[in-house]
Specification:
8% of the residues lie in helices and 50% in strands. By secondary structure, it is mainly beta. It has a single domain, classed as predicted glycosyltransferase like domains (Thrombin, subunit H), CATH 2.40.10.
Length: 104
Amino acid sequence: MEERREYGRKPLRFKVILTAPEGPYRSVTAEAANLSVGGVGLKLKEAVKSRGRLFLRITRPFFQDSIEGTGEIMWQKFSEGSGEFLAGVRFIEMPFTKIKALLV
């Protein structure tokens, strides 16, 4: 399978809260598996049902502030090995200087 990511990913662990701006959708908490300037790989207990733009809140251990922005689910699949859903989120609007600081 050919790699289609525009940016390299760095393995990191932190909490991400996804919320759809409209519709019958509740917030879902996910664990980040990896991060790049362009997006984040997530592990979830359930599939994300919403399509389109989502609000993202990244909370980092040992930091009081969170990073907030928007993104969209580019792909998701169920991993039988772990029993979790995996998803790739592309950032749309995100304070990239804060994201870059996590990657150093």
